[in-house]
Amino acid sequence: MPEHNSIEERLGELEARVTRLEQSAVRPHGSANTDRLAAKIEERTGGTTVDTKTHPIGQLDTSFVLLAGGSTLAFDDSTEIEKLLEASDDALAIAISGLAHPVRVRLYKALLTGRKESGELLEIAGLNTTGQLYHHLQAMEDVGLVSRRSRNLWECQNQVAFLHLIAAGHWLSDWTGTD
After folding, report:
1. Domains of the chain
2. CA nearest to 108, candidates 128, 131, 132, 137
3. Stronger pLDDT, 153 or 61, i.e. the higher one
4. Structure confidence at residue 172 (pLDDT)
5. In whole angstroms, how far apart are CA 109 and each of 78, 121, 125, 132?
6. Which of 30, 73, 130, 169 could bridge 66 with an S-S bond, Cβ 3.0-4.6 Å?
7. pLDDT digits (tens, 9 = 90+) for 147-173
8. What are phi and psi of 97, to 5 degrees?
9. What's the predicted TM-score (pTM) here?
């Protein structure tokens, strides 16, 4: 550290370093996607403190229309963020894990077009054994994302949860700059 003539100079340098550190903590690093996302966040939350941006209060409003399998599903929900934060950590982790694998996402996307038999799902997923397939389908069934209609026939359930999970995945990958 360079020699300083006064406490004021030393304090000024420390303040400049803290400012640089705070700015790097708020702004995500990486791709143009992260820059665009950071700009959107700043536009929507401009003038608020870092704490407000990272510790939201209020409610989460979600609306969308899903067209799948020849039917339309409209969804409009408002949930208090405090209620979301009160949920059991274990229960949330288990629920999210129902889709937390590329094979499970691939299977669910395939089921959006209609019911599929296990053999077709095995091929779509690119798996080698039915044991692997049933492991993934069971994890998805446990959290209500798919249901078994007969011994080998599966269909998707709870498209609202699926959309929320893939939306969260998109937001997180945009934020970190990964695809």
Report:
1. 7-54 (no CATH), 59-176 (1.10.10.10)
2. 137
3. 153
4. 80
5. 26, 11, 10, 18
6. 73
7. 999 989 999 998 888 888 888 888 888
8. -65, -20
9. 0.60
